[in-house]
Structures are given as C-alpha cells and as structure tokens.
Specification:
8-stranded mixed sheet, single chain, alpha+beta, 5-stranded mixed beta barrel, 17 helices, about 30% helix, about 600 residues
Amino acid sequence: MHAYRSHSCAALTSANVGDTVRLSGWVHRVRDHGGVLFIDLRDHYGVTQVLCDPDSPVFAEVEKVRSEWCIRIDGNVKARDGSLINPKLPTGEIEVYVRDIEVLGHSAELPLMVFGDQEYPEETRLAYRYLDLRRDKMQENMKLRSDVVASIRKRMWNKEFREYQTPIITASSPEGARDFLVPSRLHPGKFYALPQAPQQFKQLLMVSGFDKYFQIAPCFRDEDPRADRSPTDFYQLDLEMSFVEQQDVFDTIAPVLAGVFEEFGGGKKVDAPETWEQISYRDAALWYGSDKPDLRNPIKMQVVSDHFRDSGFAIFAKLLEQEGTEIRAIPAPTGGSRKFCDRMNAYAQKEGLPGMGYIFWRDQGEGMEAAGPLAKNIGPERTEAIRQQLGLGVGDAAFFLGGKPKAFEAIAGRARNVIGEELKLIDEDRFAFAWIVDFPIYEADEETGKVDFEHNPFSMPQGGMEALQGDPLKVLGFQYDLACNGYELVSGAIRNHRPEIMFKAFEIAGYDEAEVRKRFGGMVNAFQYGAPPHGGCAAGIDRIVMLLAGEQNIREVILFPMNQRAEDLMMQAPSDPTSDQLMELGLRVIPQD
C-alpha cells in the first residue's frame, strides 16, 4: 500500500464497502457522540467521515487529535445506516472505521477556523493565508481560476494562436501607471523596470512576423488598490494579431470569453457575441455615466436641458446660461415615492453634491399628478414633456443633475447603479457584455487649454494623418474596451504602426520627435522596417474569475494577494534591504521625515 494513501478523501463509495484503505488529510472537525469519535477528514478533493470507538487499538491516539492536524489513517470501509447517509457528499454512503493512525503534522492553536463560514478580519486572513486557503470557498475559487486559465489557453490554441513569453525585466515605459523599478548591479545608478504590460514586446512580435500571439502574462503596476484591482501585480490574457481591423479583434476575443462565461458561469445567461452592443465612449458617458456600464440595469440617462431652459427652476435655468453645461435625467421606474426620492437625494449629498432634484408621478384618483419641488417650479407642461421623453408613468420617478458633464457624470453613474439596485431592476442572472468604442485620443486642460492624451497614445487615429490636421479634441482612436456587469474586462486598440503618424500624434500633445525616440526608441525604430497593421487587446484574468466566482473583491480569487496598503503580511514584504545589498547596488536609503 502507498505510504500515505490508497484513495483520496472524495473517492470512496458504497462499492468499496469491506475494503481496507489508507487516507491522508486534515482534521476538518471532530465530534464525540457518547464515546464514539467521528472525524471529517479533508483533503484537496473532498471529505470522508472516519470513526473510532474504544474497540479500536488506536482509540487513545485518536482522542488526542485536534482541528487541522494532518494525519494518516488506515481502516475498513463500512456502509452507513440508511438514515445517516449524507447525500451532499460523494462519500456520504460510507464511513471508515479507524484501525491505525499516524500524525503527520501537529497544528498549533488556530488564528482562524477552517471549518464553517466565520468571518475574520482581512488582515488576519492575509497574514495566515495558507490557513485561509484551506477553506472550502477559497479552494473552489482557486480551482475555478486554474480551470478558467486552462480553458482560455485551449480556446486560444484552437484559434491558431501560439503562446510566447516576453521579458519580465525591461526598460521603464510610461503606460498610465507607476513602474516598479529594479536597480542594476552591473550598471550602478541605472534601473530596469517590471513591465506594466507586454505592450511594446507584443507589437515588436508583429513586426517580427509572428502573426498571432497570446500569453497569460503577469503585469506589474504600482497602483492604489481598489476592490477590483490589485496594487502590485495581476495577470491578463494578452493577445496581438497582424493584418487586422477592429472588428477582427472583436470576432476573435468575444467567442473565447463568451465560451468561458458559458462554461463556468453557473448557468447565467450569456448573450451571443455577435449581439454584443457597440457603444461609443461619448454615449456610454451620457447614458450610463461610465465607460464600463452595467447593462443588466435597464436605466438609460438622457439630456433634458431644453425642458429647464428659461424655466421657473432658477438653479437649472441659470446653470444653462453657462457654456458647456447641461441637465441630465436618471429615470427610476417604480421609484415614485417621496420616501425613495428623499433617500436618493440624501445619497447625492453624501457623494458631495448639494442634492439631486426629482419628480415623481402618482395617481390622485382623477388622473396622474407630478409631485416634488421641481414639478411645482417648472409647471405641468414642462413636467409632462419630461415624462413623455423618459417614457415614465404612474409610480415612476426621475432624478436630475446639472452642470458640466465631466463634473457630475461619475456621480450620476453611481446614482444610476444605486437606483437600479434598490428598485431591484438589475437582472442578476445574466452576464451583459458591451464594446465601448470611439475613445477620444486627446483632452484639453480646462484651466490652461493644453492638449494632452486622454487615452492610449499608441492607438491609430480614425482617419490617420488627415484626422490629425484638424481639431485634436475631435480625433477618435481605434481603441476599445469590453465591459461586463459594470467592470472593464478587456482593453485594446488597433495600433499606430506608422512612424510619421505617431510623431504627429505626439507633437499635438507637446512631445517632439526626439522625445518620442528617447522614450520609445525600440518600437519606433522597428516601425521603420516594414511594420504590418496590427492590433490586439488584453483581458483581466483576475476580474474574469472574480465575476465568475460571484465575488466583490479581487483578493478572493488571488492566491497570495497584498493588502490595501500593498503589503504582504505573510511574507513581511516590502522589507528593509541589508547594508550589504545596498552597497552592492550602489544605493542609499534616505529616511523620510
């Protein structure tokens, strides 16, 4: 017999009754039923109930075991009485009578319990992550992650992509976040960087003639943490293709992701990829207040400025006299009660706004009536026009925000989400995907008027060089994101592979050719030697798994994540370097005041 096990803790069934077996695992829990000890023995695969009574030659040893001891037992498989069968377990028809036991690893007093669903502070969970990972939910999340990655790889190979590995140590390259710098021992005073993404390398692969590339790539960014973003490193499905247009990229990645969500989504609806909406960045901001809208929420915001222009509501009327301002409405089907409207008004105040105007419609017996302060100020004719534009009726409400869109869009988007959640308008049984397209390349600083890049500077401008001759604020890029249930899952672009167009694009933002060559010399030089048209995207593995696992925090699907302060509490990182290490690198740490 094997030194540790003849079967896993999920393998035994009624067909094994009478067999002598050997199992190894962790003591999940111990129950004493009048002198008969029952132990749920757990390994990576499942749980088997083992029992021991005073007739067993090792009863005294079994009495000593405690939760999370690692043990090996030998015993005989017995059938459970019919009334004691546990249909929730694959091994629920049997139990193993213990004849021998060996303690493979004792456990100290536990800082957190593995059995059960007790909640523990995140700091405790991360400091003892190896224990936290023993919990059923965490085991399932990590198995899901592994299975999702395997499925993605298989689907990409089936689409005739090959996986290539790009460097982990490279040059610093500004890509929208801070680099992690690595000092060079052989070149004192100089630094490498961990790649924020394989962006330049995958484009260079296209120049090198590799037609289809993908990689499950580690990426490193020194970012502030959020619930859906790791502060240090993450993994993405990175891909690039030559001789493609924007739609070709969509047609490649969409079926891969749709297939993964169908395979692991627990039966939730996934719309066919060819039906996924393509929404312009401008419309996404207008309708949803976000470039990663949750389309499970049917609420679509609208501009209603004309109904308030020169109206009796002085605040909005005066606001609209200023250039670049507008009034937007958030429809709230079934939200037509003063209590709900007051609650949303308080929400807006908590978000830092003076409040959120509202109108709600109610049945007064003799017909529909519009209620609320706004209705009284603008009168029945304008109120009725708003109702008809928004398609609302009795029992519905609308909320209003005004000003320069960039100042209130994000809050309006969050309010839309809260309204949808509170009114139970969100279809929880669906993964709703949408492509966000037509991103503007440039933006102007409101105070200085200086033009700079708003989004990816390496995207090909729609219209090429000709588009760059006009108003830069009207230039759109072949850049795109894929949103799902309120998260950005994919970001990508058709690349600017023409050096002359690239130099012009950077010139508009205030960077001369010398600066571009200094910062991106490797890629610019390569583009002078017959670069093909190419494009691609990257999909966040961690966010995909987070959605599939139904988690709200990305740390629940990462094996060993950092905490909110980018600290590894288990390994005590970051740590102080030794004096010898600093001397070898020619570095000195200056204490911070």
